[in-house]
Amino acid sequence: MVDVAFQGGTISVAEQVDRAKVLGRLRLGDAAFRHLTRAAAVTVLVILGGIIVSLVYGSLPAIRAFGLTFLIDETWNPVTEKFGAIAPIYGTVMTSLIAMLIAVPVGLFIALFLTELCPMWLRRPIGIAIELLAGIPSIIFGIWGLFVFAPFLQQYVQPFLIAVFGHVPVLSTLFEGPPYGIGIMTAGLILAIMVLPFITSISRDVFEAVPPVLKEAAYGLGCTTWEVVRYVVLPFTRVGVIGGVMLGLGRALGETMAVTFVIGNAHRIAGSIMAPGTTISATIANEFTEAVEDIYTSSLIELGLILFVITFIVLAFARLMLMRLNARVGA
Amino acid sequence: MVMISGASSPLYAKRRRRNVITMGLSFAATAFGLSWLVLILGVLLWNGFSGLSLAVFTEMTPPPGAAGGLLNPIMGSLVMTSIAVAIGTPLGMLAGTYMAEYGRYDKLTTVVRFINDILLSAPSIVIGLFVYEIMVARMGHFSGWAGAVSLAVIVVPVVVRTTEDMLTLVPDTLREAAASIGLPRALMITKVAYRAARAGMITGVLLAIARISGETAPLLFTALNNQFWSTDMNAPVASLPVVIFQFALSPYKDWQKLAWTGALIITLAVLALSIIARLLAAQRKSS
């Protein structure tokens, strides 16, 4: 019978010193690795801090020059060096609004299809296809939007909208003017296609988190599928769905390339959603390399700061909502 | 008998009708969503394939009106992506390791996870502005390094997220077994936990590469663009997405054609990466 502990007791002094050395080295390596990983984790926070500090620092000249009027001024004139952000802010909000109006219901219905109706063997392929749509880079949406989607809208959809809504009060302002093809509406529609997969995949995940027993109970009472969804699934997952929608909204607000191609880059607020406009991200993408004067650059960086603050709030809210749902499912 | 009359009552008919309508809508929504994927890929293949030739991979970007290829932007993209992955992956993996192994229940981990999730969906153009401020404005010129760093900033949150998720999935019994034979924690993590989570962590890196290979916005004012062959990372470097952006918006037909071809190359690369990543993840689940 070999006793390991006993053997350990009979090793020579030299071996013991050796062993202490090895153990010491291991302990040192352990502590070093621990601190290394901790430093890496802290780096994530440093990156966020760096983004905020550098954006604030970069926009200081513009903040000093324009103050709060920057937020409400519509002028954007590089020649006279007068800058105001309200037109891009309006464009960002408007395009995202159009995108969410379309993508939220469609995304929820797809998630509903995937969790309740779709046969098992088809769920994975459709889920993967939707996620592939999410993986297509935004520049592809941009080039497609510019060469395919915008001309299509210009030729077929927009004249139709003008003809139908042109004589309806209120709506006629919304669909006014010549069909340019490019503009707020086109950008909003492309954003809708882009955020659709995000909303779908998160809604599907939260729908799947509903305990089956709740749904089975409702089916047992004789509910139709729609009633189960309406009165069991949606109430249970409400916070998660809101979180998913906000996450999609965060994407839509910050999306750059797809919008830049089709927005038209016009610094004004038009009543019609078919008119060209601009968004914060498109303005930065289009003009940053052309900006030579410091105040111009600084104004663009301040635009970036505004965008970051808006998306930060939206995304933080989204995460809090999703965390609340997780806590509930876990409990 | 009561049941049968109940089944044909107006109320029941109304409920059934509503059910059929909403289920029809969900079916239509799915068809609608998928049709965009088909439409976009179809147009891309149609327009991209006709321009695809050997010259695309062997010649430089041409001036308007001349023939040429996309060799310098392809190389630029490859080099900047590699550097970004080389910087971002270790950083992200170490951070993810801390969150899953050392500080799973820490306050720090909760905060980092929250911030990381926000960085994950933060607008990439803002990251471009950030790198512009800390690198381009300081050095006084655009450079490939700045482009690579801005891509690395995008890689980090993706890798942090997947590393943490994958390490959390590793069963604690493995860790206990390693600890019971006297392995120090650092070795337990690197020799046991990493090995168990390897497929998942590679998936994360692949997804990160897929994510950055199409990124345009952060490169616009960090790496800028370069019409010529350049291996100097200290100077402006061309990249595929930025060239697509420039060429697509130009009035020249042959530039636009090259833009489509470039778009096709990027999309195929991204789709291939995400499919491989998915296969890897599926393999891990089944084994």
Provide the descriptors you would attach to this structure in a database record.
heterodimer; A: two-stranded antiparallel ribbon; 1% strand; flat; B: 287 residues; mainly alpha; 0% strand
Q: Short description, anyone?
A:
Chain A is built from twelve helices and two strands, in the order ααββαααααααααα. Chain A is mainly α. Chain A has a two-stranded antiparallel ribbon with strand order 1-2.
Query: What's the total helix number of chain B?
Result: 13
The beta-strand count of chain A equals 2
What value does the Rg of chain A take, in angstroms?
28 Å
What fraction, in percent, of the residue positions of chain B are helical? Answer: over 70%
Largest sheet of chain B: none
| Largest sheet composition of chain A | 2 strands, antiparallel
Sequence of secondary-structure elements of chain A: HHEEHHHHHHHHHH
- Mean of residue pLDDT of chain B? 90
For the largest sheet of chain A, list the strands in their spatial order. Answer: 1-2
C-alpha-based Rg of chain B, rounded: 25 Å
Question: Can you give a write-up of this model?
Answer:
The complex is a heterodimer of chains A (331) and B (287). Chain A is built from twelve helices and two strands. Chain A is mostly helical. In chain A, helix 3 packs parallel to helix 7 (184-208), helix 5 packs across helix 7 and helix 11 packs across helix 12 (294-330). The longest helix of chain A is centred in the first third of the chain and has 54 residues, at 13-66. Chain A starts with a helix and ends with a helix. Chain B is mainly α and 287 residues long. Chain B is 78% helix and 0% strand. Chain B has helices at 2-7, 10-49, 54-58, 71-102, 107-120, 124-139, 144-169, 172-180, 185-196, 198-213, 217-220, 240-248, 253-286. The longest helix of chain B has 40 residues, at 10-49. Chain B is globular. The termini of chain B are far apart. The model of chain B has no long low-confidence stretch (mean pLDDT 90). Classes of the chains: A mainly alpha (331), B mainly alpha (287). The interface between A and B is large, with 90 and 91 residues.
